[in-house]
Amino acid sequence: MPSKIVTPSNHILITGGSGFLGKHVTKLLSDNITIPRSAEYDLTKESHVKKLLNDKKPNIIIHLAAAVGGIGINQQKPGTFFYKNLMMGTLLLENARTHNVEKFIAVGTICAYPKHTPIPFKESDLWNGYPEETNAPYGLAKKMMLVQSQSYREEFGYNSIYLLPVNLYGPGDNFNPKSSHVIPAIIKKCVDAKRQNARSITCWGTGNATREFLYVEDAARAIILATEKYNSSEPMNIGSGKEISIKNLVELIAELSGYDGQIIWDKSKPDGQPRRCLDTTKAKEEIGFVAKTDFKVGLKKTIDWYENEITG
């Protein structure tokens, strides 16, 4: 998909460009982009942010960088995640404005939604309650970019947008069990158990919670479309609009990976948010985005990628 924003006059800075989602966004852009490295630019420090913008002089910023992980690490590092995500978003957006960056794309998170949001989640529901407790510090820190974006548009006429993607998955995801999200965590459990001839795997919670997932290549395409076409500070959901229970997800991954052992549910562990599924009407109407990747196909590609990684 040739992007309309790749032009000689557009210099695009992508924070988190070497991360899971960032790599796929950069593939779609490829030309005239900058990916700042954390070793050189600490985005939680204003002096570093100012230096970055003075050095690189972008006219578009796509902010993907985040301190993030699954339920376990969210419980271990709520303060760290709150501080880092809040500071990165606040400093980048403020300095983008003062350095005359033409457009800022803030990529938020579904964790910003209230814990008991009616299904499907509509953008208008975003402020109708407190987020699910294990994800709240991260979700609220990211949500502040929406407040900042809308405030800056009202006072300064600044063009920034705020996107709300669901849980992503795909090849190249984080499979570290200490910090991974649910799909790579389950894939690792099933594939490793099969290779080791283990008789059982243990999964967190009851299995009753539901989630919506979006293939990472689809998410990257949505971000590029929004960068090209969307110019409102009203939040916009990015997802597939399809919901699956964690129990059914585990069973599907077990089937696709060839694991046929027992699945044990550790109900002492949290389920997280009870249900997640987005209303994706706005994305379809405003930027023409509809998820294309079949869920089973995407899962199989992700499983195959992990198996190739561990076998070399």
Describe this structure in words.
- This protein has 312 residues and is α/β, with parallel strands linked by helices.
- The protein has a domain at 12-170 and 213-241 and 275-292: NAD(P)-binding Rossmann-like Domain (Rossmann fold, 3-Layer(aba) Sandwich).
- 43% of the residues lie in helices and 14% in strands.
- The protein is built from ten helices and twelve strands.
- It has helices at 20-29, 46-56, 71-76, 78-98, 136-156, 182-195, 216-229, 246-257, 281-287, 295-311, and strands at residues 12-15, 33-34, 60-63, 103-107, 160-165, 167-169, 200-204, 210-211, 213-215, 236-238, 244-245, 262-266.
- Helix 1 links the parallel strand 1 (12-15) and strand 2.
- Helix 1 (20-29) packs across helix 7.
- It is globular.
Which descriptors apply to this entry?
Rossmann fold; 312 residues; 10 helices
Short description:
The chain is of the alpha/beta class. The protein has helices at 20-29, 46-56, 71-76, 78-98, 136-156, 182-195, 216-229, 246-257, 281-287, 295-311, and strands at residues 12-15, 33-34, 60-63, 103-107, 160-165, 167-169, 200-204, 210-211, 213-215, 236-238, 244-245, 262-266.
